[in-house]
Design brief:
18% strand, Rossmann fold, single chain, five-stranded parallel beta sheet, 220 residues
């Protein structure tokens, strides 16, 4: 574990670094699930190195009022919701706001998922080893929601792989009973944002995600 590392060059380098740490799982025929959009770029490098299947698992953070960068929870593509009750109480967020935000985010998720499924059908997950990948953790809310959705698909094993994140978020995910293993090579002493993990943290667009999915449409 590196506490004060030089940043990764980009998401592709981060993916290759994770692939080295995950290579022992290649014989389990895992499915690598990238969280769009940036997580898919990282996940693609892992899937290439491990020569395994790639798919997406779409989840979105629930945004705090007046501060859309602050996650108060997350919702997955199957509608499963994770709420940060401490943040919700602290910000005195009302139930009607949560209801509207859940509805809005699920609509956006479904629109994005419809785009992706035009390119690649969903990979069956029951009984499989799943490696869930994002380009980094912040609060961990989106990853937690994704883990819950993956578990509901009757996965055989769930491994979480991220290039870096804060210690408290990593510990929270390690404590989830659904999770068998967490791979997180970089835990900065002071964590501000996922972007600090990278020299190049350019935005990933849906077109790039769709191109990656096309690459993996004919996998065995």
């Amino acid at each position: 574990m590196r506490q004060n590392p030089d940043p990764y060059i980009d998401r592709a380098e981060a993916g290759r670094s994770l692939a080295e740490r995950l290579s022992r799982h290649s014989g389990e025929r895992p499915v690598v699930l990238g969280l769009p959009r940036g997580g898919v770029v990282v996940a693609a490098e892992i899937a290439r190195e491990l020569k395994c299947e790639l798919d997406v698992l779409v989840a979105g953070k629930l945004r705090a009022p007046y501060n859309p960068e602050l996650a108060i929870g997350a919702i997955a593509e199957d509608g499963r919701v994770y709420l940060n009750e401490l943040a919700i109480r602290g910000l005195r967020i009302k139930e009607d706001y949560l209801t509207r935000e859940k509805r809005a985010r699920l609509t956006a998720i479904n629109e994005r998922l419809a785009l992706y499924r035009k390119v690649k059908k969903k990979v069956p997950l029951a009984g499989r080893t799943l490696i869930i990948v994002d380009d980094g953790l912040a609060t961990g809310a989106t990853m937690i929601s994704a883990i819950q959705a993956a578990s509901a698909s009757r996965a055989g094993k769930i491994i979480v792989a991220v290039p870096g994140g804060p210690q408290d978020s990593v510990d929270r995910i390690k404590a989830m009973p659904e999770v068998s293993e967490v791979v997180c090579p970089v835990i900065p002493h002071l964590f501000f944002a996922v972007s600090q993990l990278y020299a190049d943290f350019k935005q990933v667009e849906d077109d790039e995600v769709m191109d990656i999915l096309r690459e993996f449409t004919n996998e065995g």
